[in-house]
Amino acid sequence: MLILGVLLYLLPLAPLRNALSRVALTRFMAVLLIYLLVLAGGIAKWHTVVNSAGAQLGFACSAECYTSGLFGALFLPSIIGGDVARLAVGISHSPRPAAVITGNVADRFLDVAAQLTLVSLGVMLLPGLLPVPFEAPAKPVLLAGVVGAAILFGFAVALRRPLLGGRSIRFRRRLAQLSHAIRALRRRPGRLVLGWLLGTSVQGSYVLLTAFLGITCGLRLPLRVWLFAWPLAKIAAVLPITQGGIGVREAALVVLLRPFGAPASEVLATGIVWEGVIVSGGLLAGVTAFLLRRWPCDPRYP
Fold first, then answer.
1. CA atoms within 13 A on the CB side of 86
2. Mean pLDDT score, 170-186
3. Which terminus of the chain faces fewer neighbouring Cβ atoms within 10 Å, N or C?
């Protein structure tokens, strides 16, 4: 609310109200319905990936896990906060908790890969170089990323022996289960590719829906610009400073689209309406997860 409040304070309210007033309730409900249908693809992706790791979850169980995560993301820090709820439900149903954890981590990597695929596609489709405002911070951002990756790698090397040299039988058993889940994923590269394709389709559908809402709000931008900016804004929402990325996503969109000539008020209006779709979908997902708890959840082998 603080981030959104700052945006509302800095931007003129009249154009924002005008843009929001263009979104009819019927159009909002149509976008919400399509959003819910696309979520079925997300459930199928998660189900495929975690079972490839050996989680042995039926589709109803996977749907309960996924919808629980969507609901939890509304109240937990960043968009990854929903993974806590998703894993809690998955571990309670699966005979192989390590496989659920491994599959969920792999699923997140596939999501990031899908978003980077869309960003790369947007960059390739741009008629020329990126706008000048993006060129100046490019090198510092790249350098910061390299330094951060180097630090993480150094920590991993330094802590490898202390972490893996534990003498606890329970620890070594869990480590063996984790290694088994990783090997199971590596033996099924085709399913990982399928997960990446499903993830790219799901994220691409979200880009199209947001672009459609942008047109409704009076924001007309080439689709390639949305392909470049929207996934980056979603990646920014991973920062654990908000619930479900609310506020961060909208601020990132305003910053990313402004160099392309997009009016900030219309960008913020589009982001607010899309946030309404996400919140409504998350609440409906919570109801769905509650109802799926009554569904028999027998283990299924991949």
1. 29
2. 59
3. N
